[in-house]
Design goal:
Layout: E1 3-6, H1 16-52, H2 57-79, H3 83-92, E2 96-98, E3 100-108, E4 113-119, E5 129-134, E6 149-154, E7 158-162, E8 169-174, H4 181-185, H5 189-198
Helix pairs in contact: 1-2, 1-3, 3-5
Length: 205
C-alpha cells in the first residue's frame, strides 16, 4: 500500500558535511557491532576448546555464525552502500526542501530494501517515479519523513534525499531511466557537466 507523507514547512537546510559525518558514524557503529560480534564468538570458541576439544560440534555452532557475520559484513560493505554516491551528489548540488514524498513500494535485495518513491517538486503531478536505496544500506523506510525531506540533485539524473533530524540518506535515480533519456540529452552543457561531476549521468541503481 502506498505510503503518502506530507509536510507543513521547512527550516534551514542541513550542512552537507554534517549529513555525511552522521552517516559515516552510523556506518562505523554498524561495522564495529558486526565485527565485534564475530570476534566475540571466535574468542568464546577459543576459550572453550580446552574443555570441549576442537572436534566438538558445539564449537562449530559458534564459529559458523562468526564466519557468516564476517562474510555478510564484507559483502554488504562492498556492494550494498551508496554513501560515496551520496557524497558526490551533495558536493555538487545544494539541498532544497520538498514538501511531500510518497513511498510506493519496497523490494527486498541481499544488502537492503530498494524503494520506489515519488518526491514532489514545484509542479504537482510532474514528479517522476524514483528508485532508491539507503545511503548506508539496511532495511525499513527511514523514520522522520513525515516532516519532509531535503533533496539534492537533478530529477532527470538522480540525487539524494536527506531526512531531517536523523540525516538518513536515500540515493535515488529515475525508476524508468530510458523514459527520461531525451530530457537528459537536452539538459544543456551546465546541467550535464554537473551530473557528470556527481557521477549520476549514467544509471547506477
Amino acid at each position: 500500500m502506498p505510503e503518502d507523507l506530507r509536510v507543513t514547512g521547512a527550516t534551514k537546510s542541513p550542512d552537507a558535511g554534517q549529513v555525511l559525518l552522521r552517516n559515516y558514524l552510523r556506518l562505523i557503529k554498524d561495522l564495529v557491532v558486526r565485527i565485534g560480534t564475530a570476534i566475540a564468538l571466535i574468542i568464546t570458541a577459543g576459550a572453550l576448546r580446552g574443555f570441549l576439544g576442537w572436534d566438538s560440534p558445539f564449537l562449530g555452532l559458534l564459529v559458523a555464525p562468526a564466519v557468516f557475520i564476517f562474510l555478510f559484513t564484507v559483502y554488504r560493505f562492498m556492494f550494498g552502500l551508496a554513501v560515496r554516491k551520496c557524497r558526490r551528489v551533495l558536493r555538487n548540488y545544494p539541498l532544497e526542501f520538498r514538501p511531500r514524498i510518497s513511498k510506493k513500494d519496497a523490494a527486498w535485495t541481499q544488502y537492503g530494501d530498494r524503494f520506489t518513491l515519488r518526491i514532489a517538486d514545484d509542479k504537482p503531478g510532474t514528479a517522476p517515479l524514483m528508485r532508491a536505496i539507503k545511503g548506508v544500506g539496511g532495511r525499513g523506510w527511514p523514520k522522520g519523513t513525515e516532516g519532509g525531506v531535503w533533496v539534492a540533485g537533478d530529477a532527470a539524473f538522480g540525487g539524494v534525499a536527506v531526512v531531517p533530524g536523523s540525516y538518513e540518506m536515500l540515493f535515488f535515480q529515475p525508476a524508468y531511466w530510458d523514459k527520461h533519456a531525451q530530457e537528459r540529452e537536452q539538459a544543456g552543457a551546465e546541467r550535464l557537466a554537473r551530473a557528470r561531476q556527481a557521477r549520476i549521468e549514467r544509471r547506477r541503481l
